[in-house]
Design brief:
Radius of gyration: 40 Å
CATH superfamily of the domain at 129-266 and 274-341: Spore Coat Polysaccharide Biosynthesis Protein SpsA, Chain A
Strand content: 5-15%
Shape: elongated
Largest sheet: 9 strands, mixed
Number of helices: 10
Low-confidence stretches: 2-12, 353-374
Mean pLDDT: 83
Length: 418
Amino acid sequence: MEGKRVFSLFFCLPAARLVAHVFNFVQASALSDPKNRSFYCSLFIVASLICCAYFIGGASIAKEYKERLTRWKVIYSRQNAKFDTCKNRCQPLGSEALPEGIVAKTSDLESRPLWGSSVNNENSKPSMSLLAIAVGIKQKEIVDRIVKKFLSSDFVVMLFHYDGAVDKWRDLNWSDRAIHVSVMNQTKWWFAKRFLHPDIVSEYEYIFLWDEDLGVENFDPKRYLSIVREEGLEISQPALDPDKSDVYHPITARVKKLKVHRRFYKFKGSGRCDDHSSAPPCAGWVEMMAPVFSRAAWQCVWYMIQNDLIHAWGLDVQLGYCAQGDRTKNVGVVDSEYIVHLGLPTLGVSDGNKVTNAPAPAQKGDPKALAPSASDKVNDRAKVRMQSFIDMQIFKERWSNAVKEDKCWVDPFQLSAN
């Protein structure tokens, strides 16, 4: 209504002034010259019609303006609402130019057929968890037993070949079902940092990152998963059979008649562990030979793995920070499903051809190029272990520096240390 008044006044005021001037002129002229009265009356009528036209046109324009103004307000409010909704939408970095529905945020390790798409296949059952294991051909029989158990439990299996002997696994009937990644002389942690990014393995509920020298006669993957879910374990490992295994840390040894244990007790000597202990090695700790991570825990652990430290020594002490809460409750050892740690030398040891970090062999025809003897044995285990200790010291130093430099980080366990 206000707009109508404004426009009416805007258009009618000039016309009204014109009519008033004409009326005054007609009146004056009529008094001085009666003969022209008819002409000026006609002029007065024309001016009046012009005024009416201004009035009617102004009302129409005012109405149209009001409708446009209303539409503008609606459009503006919708744009504002859309902006408020969209500004809080969190899309992956780099995908902002795409509509949200087309963004595929994750991937997996499942193979896909070249034809006969399985996109709408209701019978296809996705694998629930992943076994990733570093392997060498010398442990082929042991790995064969491990892989068979996991494949029968609907696992995806990924083999990290550190000796380059991928083709020598082709005779196993499950070889084509496994994913093979081959890089010479690398550890499982090197492979995991590069090939098990959280976005790639986020489809899997649990990640088993194992060594190759493990006996699994008393281990069932499905029962193990059932237990860790029931117990709420974010980071875990199967217990070690103390009678057959190389046990380096007492907390990993199997406790008979228990399903799960979360701490180790030591009441004598130095480094005592009791019910009040809340830090490794007494509680909240697993060893690095056969760790099992939940999806959430792995997303944290992956970021803690240092890209340039391939042995990952020292990482085990800090794993509790990735336990999604209280490490004394969410980290544990499963006793009812246990394994044997055979303690076999792997990296740095080979028979025949050397597979350590050596220069390339001499070219054919070189008099120095001698055929390797079958009895030749390379043992660089001492160098490997030395590098492991060096990596551990570097990691400890980095952790310490990171804690000092990050003013926003609060240690959740600083008040509960032993």
